[in-house]
């Protein structure tokens, strides 16, 4: 039997969910018998492959780069998992929504800078007006709340998906915890 | 004042009016006043004085003559002519018309359906009496009903008469008035109260305002009869602060009635006492809801509370309280005077009597009308209203304000009564009737009413507080071309949920404008969502950038 | 015999298919609790007056066209109540969702993380994600009080603080201003909390607050636990037998 193709991507988040994923420790070895990690910030592939079975998304959709990525990832993934509060609620990146992009830039790049205050331009993707959770941009199949979700939760989610079942999380995960 | 004194006052007043050689009645209703009728009155008096006609010409300010679209209106009794669009600079032309041919001013045809198809019961005095003079009201049979009730009827008789008349609450919901009265009459408590709900707040509605401004004594008389029937000795009139003229005139009316012994202690020499206080609201729409109104009168924050207990059992300060709308109370005196069977004979099987509407929007004859129940919408819009101006085509008529719905052309031949309107997804409401032509976008209309509900939500219960804001946000997405089908589905889901779970009528009915426009004009919503077009060309549709959103 | 017992009678009703007996002065919520049926609620807290505002506890009553809040609806003979139908579950989920969409609830950085009634409700009602647009209002934190902080970003407008301050402490420092989504709880007609003339600094409001909207200074993320034992205690002690 061929192994399932699993990918993870990192949008606007702190990488904590990926750290939690790494906290699977020896269970990673067990999972690796059933899956190949075909794309991830943890491995060195440049292009998101076609035809991925499961993609875990960390982080919210905050800038044009995130938007571009998530649209492509959605198209190329059979099952899309929102992993962690940033992907599910916007969480800490979303706290800027009440402030607005312009005042945020002024505060961060003008008022808080003593040498050459200037707004970022060109090299970095522009921020979107509002930070959005992934499911408010593309359809999401599995929602895993938590900041970050525990290694056991991630293990449960991935094993269930690899076994061809949708994990039941409704009353097992919570925001923040 | 007893019946004899009342009659002699009436006779004196009638005589005096008859003695006036030439009486000019200038409409000071909402529409005409904003068109400059105050200045016209002044100009007429001034010019009459200058022309030495002071003794002959009497200029009186009266209530709404009805056809607001053509205001200011002036009725000349001597020649029995109604003039329209009489701007202040035309004062001389009016005075000229008394002695010769009318030139330079337009005669208003009083034979047109706008006037002939109406049946004025609550508005019977509008255009005839001077609101600040109690004699003027008495001359038109004012306070006869009250004195008759006190002398000849037991409280139970009065309740029975109102029940027999088939009168239903004119504030919107149409609860049988007689039933409400009998509940309060039978309830026990240390005191009872009668409250007149004058917190009219629907956009485009000014029925109650007209009654309170033009015929304040009618409201007082209705309240006094109600108080006698249910056993109350104290009443409140709750008026919104945005109606300063109504407040002023009601205050004057209360003090005049008290001076004449028609309010206060031992009315007409009987053991019945009834006093009325005015309470001015701060203009919150939700205070039209009974329990919120009670909170506001008691000096608390105007928010509703769950019912039961109903105000009829536990209202003001926990006492049984009868709350009726202005128009309902305005119907009481005629019912007593002319008899319950007469009133019950007007209208349909389940909706009796007449209803006052404010006809506004894309219609020729905007104005204040009173029609028998059971008249069709088509008669109101096309006969009385004169149809759509500027060659436009009819699209929908909105009744019931922010709690009502939009009714499309196919239901125009439906009779206007509580049940029929509910069946097609609207409500009778308090009487706002907004006609819309092809230039109106139904998404925009729904969004307008949702914005109203959002800003008028008191914020107490979550479904109404957040639900109206969320529905407004989704409607805005649709109107700016940002929405997708998920947004539309979400909107429909919210409509259902807010309707079922909100605490009071405001929240429960807030989705109605959306539900009814979705029901009859779904294609317009779909054009916004799928094609990014507003068919009527009203919505901005500016945010369509190809960004897909899924919530 | 105490007077209160004579005025109510015992009736039989059905809750979720189960026949139960109850006194007519009991609410559906109270009777359900006795039967071990938990009806989700937010504005309701035992010991304070009920206002039927959060609408989470609405139940279906056979023959009634409208849903009724269990916290203020008294039982009656023959009543048939359903507390957890699919329709009610869906409505409750949406209500919780609305609360998360209304203000800025960022659980991961909240002092009440892990001890929060709103978080618990999300789990209880199976609310996994907010499908409604976030309203993201900009709100100022009031840290002017020497011991407590008010963070309106976490406030759900349950008005428990308003009621405990009025009904138990008798200070009536808290009240509500504004309308609709713009309504806010305020201290002393909108003065900063620290400048309040009426606040006794008793902290009851902080303890009854379901979320991290009111908390003690000096606590960090997830460190704020609320102590509510005083409420039933005070209520019981104040119920002087007639």
Topology of this structure?
The complex is a heterotrimer of chains A (177), B (551) and C (242).
Chain A lengths: L3 E7 L5 H7 L4 H6 L2 E5 L12 E7 L2 E3 H13 E7 L1 H5 L11 H11 L15 E6 L9 E3 L6 H12 L15
Parallel strand pairs in A: 1-2, 1-3, 3-5, 5-7
Antiparallel strand pairs in A: 4-6
Chain B lengths: L2 H17 L2 E6 L2 H5 L2 H14 L6 E6 L11 E3 L4 E4 L6 H9 L6 E3 L4 H4 L17 H6 L4 H9 L2 H11 L11 H10 L6 E6 L8 H8 L1 H15 L3 E7 L3 H16 L15 E7 L8 H8 L23 E5 H13 L1 H5 L9 E8 L5 E6 L4 H8 L9 E6 L5 E4 L9 H6 L8 E6 L4 H15 L5 H18 L5 H17 L3 H5 L2 H9 L1 H10 L20
Parallel strand pairs in B: 1-2, 6-7, 6-9, 7-8, 10-14
Antiparallel strand pairs in B: 1-3, 3-4, 4-5, 10-11, 12-13, 12-14
Helix pairs in contact in B: 3-4, 7-11, 7-14, 8-9, 8-11, 10-11, 10-12, 11-14, 18-19, 19-20, 22-23
Chain C lengths: L2 H5 L2 E6 L2 E6 L4 H7 L23 E4 L6 E2 L10 E3 L3 H17 L14 H8 L23 E3 L9 H10 L4 E4 L6 E4 L16 H5 L5 E3 L13 H9 L4
- The first-level CATH class name of the largest domain in chain B: Alpha Beta
Question: Which chains share the greatest interface?
Answer: B-C, 34 and 37 residues
Order of helices and strands of chain C: HEEHEEEHHEHEEHEH
Number of helices of chain B: 23
Strand content of chain C: 5-15%
SS content category of chain B: alpha/beta
Overall CATH architecture of the largest domain in chain B: 3-Layer(aba) Sandwich
Number of beta strands of chain C: 9
Describe this structure as you would to a colleague.
- The complex is a heterotrimer of chains A (177), B (551) and C (242).
- Chain A is an alpha/beta fold.
- Chain A has one domain: Rossmann fold.
- Chain A has 6 helices and 7 strands; from the N terminus they run βααβββαβααββα.
- Chain A has helices at 16-22, 27-32, 64-76, 85-89, 101-111, 151-162; strands spanning 4-10, 35-39, 52-58, 61-63, 77-83, 127-132, 142-144.
- Chain A has a 5-stranded parallel beta sheet with strand order 2-1-3-5-7.
- Chain A starts with a strand and ends in a 15-residue tail after the last helix.
- The mean pLDDT of chain A is 94.
- In chain B, α3 packs across α4, α10 (207-214) crosses α11 (216-230) and α18 (442-456) packs antiparallel against α19.
- Helices cover 43% and strands 14% of the residues of chain B.
- Chain B is globular, with a radius of gyration of 24 Å.
- In chain B, a hairpin with a 5-residue loop joins β10 (354-361) and β11 (367-372).
- Chain B contains 23 helices and 14 strands.
- Chain B is of the alpha/beta class and 551 residues long.
- Chain B has helices at 3-19, 30-34, 37-50, 91-99, 113-116, 134-139, 144-152, 155-165, 177-186, 207-214, 216-230, 244-259, 290-297, 326-338, 340-344, 377-384, 418-423, 442-456, 462-479, 485-501, 505-509, 512-520, 522-531, and strands spanning 22-27, 57-62, 74-76, 81-84, 106-108, 193-198, 234-240, 275-281, 321-325, 354-361, 367-372, 394-399, 405-408, 432-437.
- In chain B, the strands form 3 sheets. Chain B has a 5-stranded mixed beta sheet, covered by helices on one side.
- Chain B folds into 4 domains: 17-112, 3-Layer(aba) Sandwich (Glutaredoxin), CATH 3.40.30.10; 141-344, 3-Layer(aba) Sandwich (Rossmann fold); 354-437, Ubiquitin-like (UB roll) (Roll), CATH 3.10.20; 442-531, NADH-ubiquinone oxidoreductase 51kDa subunit, iron-sulphur binding domain (de novo design (two linked rop proteins), Up-down Bundle), CATH 1.20.1440.230.
- Mean pLDDT of chain B is 94; it is low at 545-551.
- Chain C is α+β, with helices and mostly antiparallel strands.
- Chain C has 2 domains: 3-84, Roll (Ubiquitin-like (UB roll)), CATH 3.10.20; 89-228, 2-Layer Sandwich (Alpha-Beta Plaits).
- Chain C has helices at residues 3-7, 28-34, 86-102, 117-124, 160-169, 204-208, 230-238, and strands at residues 10-15, 18-23, 58-61, 68-69, 80-82, 148-150, 174-177, 184-187, 214-216.
- In chain C, the strands form 3 sheets. Chain C has a 5-stranded mixed beta sheet, with helices on one face. A two-stranded antiparallel ribbon of chain C has the order 6-9. Chain C has a two-stranded antiparallel sheet with strand order 7-8.
- In chain C, β3 (58-61) and β4 (68-69) form a beta hairpin.
- Chain C is globular, with a radius of gyration of 19 Å.
- Residues 1-5 of chain C have low confidence and may be disordered.
- The chains are: A alpha/beta (177), B alpha/beta (551), C alpha+beta (242).
- Chains in contact: A-B, A-C, B-C.
- The B-C interface holds B 284, 301, 305-306, 454-470, 473-474, 477, 490, 493-494, 497, 500-503, 508, 551 and C 51-56, 58, 66-69, 72-73, 87, 90-91, 94-95, 98-99, 101-102, 130-133, 135, 156-157, 175-176, 178-183.
């Amino acid at each position: 039997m061929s192994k399932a193709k699993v990918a993870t991507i990192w949008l606007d988040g702190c990488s904590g969910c990926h750290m939690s994923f790494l906290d699977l420790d020896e269970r990673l070895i067990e999972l690796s018998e059933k899956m190949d990690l075909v794309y991830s910030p943890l491995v060195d592939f440049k292009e998101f492959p076609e035809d991925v079975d499961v993609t875990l998304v960390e982080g919210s959709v905050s800038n044009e780069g995130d938007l571009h990525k998530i649209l492509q990832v959605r198209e190329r993934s059979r099952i899309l998992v929102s992993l962690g509060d940033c992907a599910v609620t916007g969480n800490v990146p979303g706290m800027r929504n009440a402030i607005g992009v312009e005042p945020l830039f002024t505060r961060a790049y003008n008022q808080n800078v003593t040498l050459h205050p200037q707004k970022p331009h060109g090299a970095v993707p522009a921020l979107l007006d509002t930070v959005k959770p992934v499911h408010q941009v593309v359809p999401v199949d599995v929602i895993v709340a938590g900041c970050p979700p525990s290694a056991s939760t991630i293990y449960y989610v991935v094993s269930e998906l690899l076994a061809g079942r949708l994990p039941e999380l409704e009353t097992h995960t919570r925001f923040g915890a | 004042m007893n019946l004899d004194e009342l009659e002699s006052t009436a006779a004196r007043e009638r005589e005096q009016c008859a003695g006036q050689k030439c009486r000019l009645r200038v409409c000071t209703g909402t529409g005409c006043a904003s068109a400059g009728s105050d200045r016209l009155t002044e100009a007429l008096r001034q010019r009459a004085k200058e022309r030495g006609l002071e003794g002959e010409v009497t200029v009186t300010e009266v209530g709404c003559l009805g056809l607001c679209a053509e205001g200011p209106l002036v009725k000349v009794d001597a020649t029995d002519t109604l003039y329209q669009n009489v701007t202040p600079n035309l004062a001389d032309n009016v005075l000229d018309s008394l002695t010769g041919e009318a030139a330079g001013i337009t005669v208003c045809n009083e034979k047109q359906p706008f006037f002939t198809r109406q049946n004025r019961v609550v508005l019977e005095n509008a255009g005839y009496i001077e609101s600040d003079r109690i004699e003027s009201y008495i001359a038109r049979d004012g306070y006869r009903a009250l004195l008759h009730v006190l002398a000849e009827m037991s409280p139970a008789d009065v309740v029975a008469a109102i029940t027999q008349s088939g009168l239903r609450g004119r504030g919107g919901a149409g609860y049988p008035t007689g039933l409400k009265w009998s509940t309060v009459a039978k309830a026990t408590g240390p005191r009872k109260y009668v409250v007149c709900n004058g917190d009219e707040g629907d956009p485009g509605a000014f029925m109650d305002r007209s009654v309170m401004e033009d015929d304040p004594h009618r409201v007082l008389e209705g309240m006094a009869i109600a108080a006698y029937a249910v056993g109350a000795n104290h009443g409140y009139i709750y008026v919104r602060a945005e109606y300063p003229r109504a407040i002023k005139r009601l205050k004057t009316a209360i003090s005049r009635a008290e001076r004449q012994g028609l309010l206060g202690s031992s009315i007409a020499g009987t053991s019945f006492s009834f006093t009325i206080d005015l309470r001015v609201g701060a203009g919150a729409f939700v205070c039209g809801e009974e329990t919120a109104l009670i909170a506001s009168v008691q000096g608390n924050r105007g928010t509703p509370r769950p019912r039961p207990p109903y105000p009829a059992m536990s209202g003001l300060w926990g006492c049984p309280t009868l709350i009726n709308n202005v128009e309902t109370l305005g119907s009481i005196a005629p019912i007593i005077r002319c008899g319950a069977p007469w009133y019950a004979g007007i209208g349909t099987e389940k909706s009796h009597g007449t209803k006052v509407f404010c006809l506004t929007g894309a219609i020729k004859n905007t104005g204040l009308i009173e029609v028998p129940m059971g008249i069709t919408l088509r008669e109101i819009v096309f006969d009385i209203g004169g149809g759509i101006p500027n060659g436009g085509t009819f699209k929908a008529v909105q009744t019931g304000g922010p709690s009502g719905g939009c009714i499309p052309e196919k239901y125009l031949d439906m009779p206007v009564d509580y049940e029929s309107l509910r069946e097609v997804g609207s409500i009778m409401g308090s009487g706002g009737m907004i006609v819309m032509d092809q230039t109106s976008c139904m998404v925009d209309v729904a969004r307008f009413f949702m914005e109203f509900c959002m800003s008028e939500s008191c914020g107490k219960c979550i479904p109404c507080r957040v639900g109206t804001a969320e529905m407004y946000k989704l409607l805005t997405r649709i109107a700016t071309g940002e929405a997708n089908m998920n947004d539309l589905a979400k909107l429909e889901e919210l409509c259902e949920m807010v309707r079922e779970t909100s605490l009071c009528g405001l929240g429960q009915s807030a989705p109605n404008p959306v539900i009814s426009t979705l029901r009859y004009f779904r294609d317009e919503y779909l054009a916004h969502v799928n094609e990014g077009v507003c068919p009527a060309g009203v919505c901005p549709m500016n945010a369509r950038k190809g960004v897909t959103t899924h919530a | 015999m105490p007077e209160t017992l004579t005025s109510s009678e015992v009736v039989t009703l059905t809750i979720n298919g189960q026949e139960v007996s109850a006194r007519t002065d009991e609410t559906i919520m109270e009777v359900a609790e006795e039967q071990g049926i938990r009806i989700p609620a937010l504005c309701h807290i035992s010991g304070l007056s009920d206002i039927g505002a959060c609408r989470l506890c609405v139940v279906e009553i056979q023959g009634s066209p409208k849903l009724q809040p269990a916290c203020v609806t008294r039982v009656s003979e023959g009543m048939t109540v359903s507390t957890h139908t699919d329709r009610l579950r869906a409505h409750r989920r949406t209500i919780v969702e609305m609360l998360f969409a209304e203000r800025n609830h960022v659980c991961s950085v909240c002092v009440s993380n892990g001890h929060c009634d709103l978080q618990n409700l999300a789990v209880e009602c199976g609310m996994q994600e907010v499908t409604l647009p976030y309203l993201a209002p900009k709100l100022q934190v009031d840290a002017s009080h020497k011991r407590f902080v008010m963070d309106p970003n976490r406030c759900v407008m349950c008005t428990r603080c308003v009621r405990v301050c009025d009904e138990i402490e008798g200070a009536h420092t808290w009240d509500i201003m504004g309308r609709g989504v713009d309504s806010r709880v305020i201290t002393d007609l909108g003065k900063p909390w620290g400048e309040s003339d009426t606040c006794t600094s008793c902290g009851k409001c902080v303890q009854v607050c379901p979320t991290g909207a009111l908390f003690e200074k000096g606590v960090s993320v997830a460190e704020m636990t609320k102590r509510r034992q005083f409420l039933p205690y005070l209520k019981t002690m104040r119920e002087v037998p007639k």
